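Hey, can you fold this one?
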Amino acid sequence: MHTHRINEHVTILADPAPLPGLGFLAVNAFVLHAEEPVVIDTGLSLPDKDFVTDLSAVIDPTDVRWIWLTHPDRDHTGGLFALLEAAPQARLVTTFGGVGIMSTERPLPLDRVYLLNPGQSLSVGDRSLHAFRPPLFDSPATVGFYDDRSGIVFSSDCFGAPVATMELAVGADAAEIPADELRGGQLLWAAVDSPWIHNIDTSRYLETVRAVQTLEPDLILSSHLPPATNTATLFDNVAEAPNAEPFVGPDQQALEQLLASFEPPAAEARQQAEPVG
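Sure. Predicted structure:
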């Protein structure tokens, strides 16, 4: 995991996840260094990941007061239950639907849950976090927020983009990504992650884009993109999403071809397995 302090307010914990045929996708969690510290999402759910250990290099888990889960997909909940144990004073910010989804894996301690809906706010001591539904999302439990002290939007999956290299995926600024690649990646990710975008009233969708844009964020922190100071570009790109090409993934024939490229031919495999002498 790649960890670095973005500014006085936020530290990012980033993993680059390979997407075969598409490139690399950042999988980001964040620490908001508020008076009441907030952890936003908890990383990948893979056996070789230890989110709490990585987090401990940034903040003592016992100091964490809030865990804001932008939505309960497995690339956001990897360290959740371990962090709840390591951070006994922390409360989990999610929605009623989020609780239901997560409880199918493991019961949540309901006395530590804080239900917050889009349009509501949470005080974390020195600032308020204003919850909203991002324009693009893949889970009905998705809630991002605007930090009114730092001017940062935490957008969950919205504004994400696969990029060509691991280095770009965990880069310091999305502005380092070539403009055409960023645009193409954002439109591709919108089609992959929010396929409903091709079946809705475009004017109503654009209203949701403008609603976030009117916040005039200084920085956009997406779960799946490096920190973005080029906010106007990001808004322009996602505004095009309804007119982008729908995504059609590989089929079984493509999968078999891919697997065949990884495996030696059967005759060669048998020859390799035969004892020598």
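The chain has nine helices and twelve strands. Let me know if you want another pass with a different chain boundary.
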